[in-house]
C-alpha cells in the first residue's frame, strides 16, 4: 500500500512488480486508514505525513510484515512498537543527500541576502530602484559555518560551504565520522553544541529527530548564538523550540532564520509568517524530480529484497 501519490516512474514500477494499491487523490491517511492498511496489505510504503504511532501499529489482525519508509527520517514511526510487532522498517538514505544539502545552502543564502524580502518587494511593486543602502544583507563567503551533525547531509553541506564559499566549518557530532573524513572536509570538531553556537556565524542543523534532540535548540541555546548569526534548519522541525525561536527573533537575539521544516508541520507559527528576517520554505529539502524518483525506487528495492527472503539494505528497525 502506497499512502501518498509518488512520482510516475515509482508508481509504474510498483504496479508492475507488486499488487500495488495507490492513493489516487493523494489525501493524507488518517490513523484509521493506516491501521486498515496494516491489516490488509503485506507491506506499507508511508511518507513523513503518516504518523505510525504505537496505537496505529497495534492494528489487529496484522497482515503487514514491512514498512518501507519513503524518506531518510523515520521519527514519524514508533520503531519500538514496530519491532515489538515483528515489523521490519527501512528508509531511503543517500539518494537525497545532495539535494537536501543544496536546500540548506539555499536557505543560508536567502536569509543572509534578504532574498525572500526582496522578491516580495518587487512583486508588490514597492521597489523604487537601486540605492547604495537599499536592503543591505550579510556576506556568506568567508564566514564560519557551525554544523550540528556531520552525517551524510552535514558532510555535503560542509563540502559546499568550504569549497564553494570559502567558509570555515566547525561542527559537533556525538558520533563523528572517521578522522580521515573530517580532515578531508577541513572541518574542525568542537566538544559540544554550545561551543559551536558561540563561535558560528551560521548554524545549520543536521541531527536526526530523536527524543534526545527534541528542542535541542531551546531558549538557552539560542541565547548562546551571536546576535548577528543565522539559524538554518532543514532537518526536522521539532529539533527547534519554535516558540523560543520566535522570542529570540523578536528580541534580536539572532539575526534571522531559514526554515524548511516546522515543529507542527504543516502549521507554522503565525509570528514567523510576519517576520521579514525569516525565510520559510514548504519542506523542499528533497523536492527534485531526481531525488523523489530515486527515493521511491529505493523503497521498492527494499521491498523486493525483503520479499525475496534477504535482509533489506536500508533496515533501521
Strand-helix topology:
Layout: H1 8-17, H2 31-40, E1 43-44, H3 54-57, E2 66-68, H4 79-84, E3 88-90, H5 97-112, H6 115-123, E4 144-148, H7 152-165, E5 168-172, H8 179-185, E6 187-189, H9 193-199, E7 202-205, H10 219-224, E8 230-233, H11 242-251, E9 256-259, H12 270-273, E10 278-280, H13 289-307
Parallel strand pairs: 1-2, 2-3, 4-5, 4-7, 5-6, 7-8, 8-9, 9-10
Helix pairs in contact: 1-13, 5-7
Describe the structure.
The chain is α/β, with parallel strands linked by helices. It folds into two domains: 108 residues, NAD(P)-binding Rossmann-like Domain (Rossmann fold, 3-Layer(aba) Sandwich), CATH 3.40.50.720; 184 residues, NAD(P)-binding Rossmann-like Domain (Rossmann fold). Helices cover 38% and strands 11% of the residues. It contains 13 helices and ten strands. The strands form two sheets. A seven-stranded parallel beta sheet has the order 6-5-4-7-8-9-10, with helices on both faces. Helix 3 links the parallel strand 1 and strand 2. Helix 1 packs parallel to helix 13 and helix 5 packs across helix 7. The two termini are 19 Å apart.
Q: How many distinct beta strands?
A: 10
- Number of contiguous helices: 13
- Morphology call: globular
So what's the CATH class of the largest domain?
Alpha Beta
Estimate nothing, just give the exact number of structural domains.
2
The quaternary state of the protein chains shown equals single chain
CATH T-level fold name of the largest domain? Rossmann fold
> Which architecture of the largest domain would the CATH scheme give at its second level?
3-Layer(aba) Sandwich
Poorly predicted runs: none
Share in β-strands = 5-15%
Proportion of helical residues: 25-40%
Largest sheet: 7 strands, parallel
N- to C-terminal distance: 19 Å
SSE order, as H and E?
HHEHEHEHHEHEHEHEHEHEHEH
Question: Biggest sheet: strands side by side, in what order?
Answer: 6-5-4-7-8-9-10
Radius of gyration: 21 Å
Q: Spell out the CATH superfamily of the largest domain.
A: NAD(P)-binding Rossmann-like Domain
Structural class: alpha/beta
Q: Which whole number gives the mean pLDDT?
A: 97
